[in-house]
Write a structure and sequence with these properties.
seven-stranded mixed sheet, four-stranded parallel sheet, Urease, subunit C, domain 1, 20% strand, alpha/beta, binds zinc ion
Length: 412
């Protein structure tokens, strides 16, 4: 790979209050080699990108997406041949890259084969930290058995069934998922919006089951991440040692304080609910009415509750839940994070360095620093002045991952 020289950009790092103006960046062997204030470093470089006084940011990390999902419609599971899910994912991942996301914490469905395909750079895709298959209780969110008698559960080699109950059952299932090579364990600790027969207010998995999953994951040096809307569920998860709460809709002040004290992340995925309400579900979706009803209840209270969590000092991760909504909308979440109280820079931190810290990858990704992987994006507008601009794909001019230009090439 030829070295790249990016001239004349303003660098926005997640920990700098002010941009580093008019810098010149040298990339070699996939790494950021040096950041210069003068242009002389251009000598010897082969590929030159003129940054045109635009803004250079680290590639974003979406901590909650599903690259293998396209709406989670049960009807799709009935009609799609298995291979189609994977070919769809190729496009999903290109859309994710084009949006400025170079790493994804995949909260369910991407398996080790998808991760390997990215590592082999077979097609443009975000780097993946995968959970493979979320654990769910019988009758809970992500148990795909319908009262019609049809089971919509997808199951193939390397992709285990996720339902499990009881201490022995969850231990065995955690081990089965670990055998499938995850980077973290994902569980469904409350009912959900997209699943029939469950209520987001009801917690799922009892404390003994939660503790068993967390202990087994810990033994394998893996963190556990929980989908959880329910207040009671969030508290149970926090006490059991879960490291990241997804959605967190019904969180209150007391539980927020518990999360802050235990340094548990919250990934509120605000954009997904807003988008689903605005755009609705396709008319052929037989579960559309039920989903819309639950959604309206959730959105009513979520903003206020998540704002409370922010005020109480909970650390946030940026997650879009793309896969439920169209891929490529990932950075639209930043605007909603600012709506609940984060500063634009804090929202950028949630979407970059904090996402890296969750996996102890902060020495490799999450900021523009010498020695780190060259995962970066160039955008036209200053996101500190207009955080919503990051949600506009056309504003993302260039995407580079490991020193490879994956989007638009203003090359000379
Ligand atoms: Zn999700």
């Amino acid at each position: 790979m030829p070295p790249i020289y990016i001239k004349n950009v303003n660098i926005i790092n997640p920990f700098d209050e002010e941009p580093l103006d008019e810098r010149h960046v040298v990339i070699k062997d996939g790494k950021i080699v040096s950041l210069h204030t003068d242009e002389s470093a251009i000598y010897g470089s082969h590929v030159v990108i003129d940054g045109e006084d635009n803004y250079l940011l680290p590639g974003f990390i979406d901590s909650h997406a599903h690259v293998m999902a396209n709406g989670f419609h049960k009807e799709d599971t009935m009609k799609n041949p298995l291979a189609l899910h994977f070919y769809n994912a190729v496009k999903n991942m290109k859309d994710t890259i084009d949006a400025g996301v170079t790493t994804v914490r995949d909260c369910g469905l991407a398996d080790i084969g998808v991760k390997m395909a990215q590592e082999k750079k077979i097609f443009p895709a975000p780097k993946l930290n995968i959970s493979v298959k979320p654990l769910a209780i019988t009758g809970g969110h992500f148990d795909f058995f319908l009262n019609s008698g049809f089971d919509m559960e997808l199951n193939y080699p390397g992709f285990p069934v996720g339902t499990c109950d009881g201490v022995e059952g969850v231990l065995k299932k955690t081990r089965e998922v670990i055998r499938a090579c995850p980077d973290f364990i994902k569980i469904m600790a409350s009912g959900g919006i997209l699943s029939p027969y469950t209520s987001p207010e009801v917690s799922q998995f009892n404390p003994k089951e939660l503790k068993t999953i967390v202990d087994e994951a810990k033994n394998n040096r893996l963190k556990v991440v929980a989908h959880c809307h329910s207040l009671e569920g969030i508290e149970k998860c926090a006490k059991a040692g879960i490291k990241s709460i997804e959605h967190g809709t019904f969180i209150d002040k007391k539980t927020s304080q518990l999360l802050a004290k235990k340094r548990i992340y919250l990934t509120p995925t605000l954009i997904v609910h807003h988008t689903l309400i605005e755009e609705g579900f396709p008319s052929w979706d037989k579960f559309a009415d039920d989903k819309t009803k639950k959604l309206k209840e959730v959105v009513k209270i979520q903003k206020e509750n998540i704002a409370t969590a922010y005020e109480e000092g909970v650390k946030f991760l940026m997650g879009s839940d793309c896969g439920v909504i169209d891929h490529g909308r990932n950075l639209g979440e930043l605007k909603y994070l600012v709506d609940v109280g984060l500063s634009p820079l804090e929202a950028i931190q949630a979407g970059t360095i904090e996402g890296a810290r969750f996996f102890n990858q902060e020495n490799q990704i999450g900021s523009i620093e010498e020695g780190k992987n060259a995962d970066m994006i160039i955008v036209r507008k200053n996101p500190i002045d207009d955080i919503g601009s990051l949600g506009d794909k056309d504003n993302v001019l260039t995407v580079i991952q490991d020193g490879e230009i994956l989007k638009d090439k203003p090359i000379f």
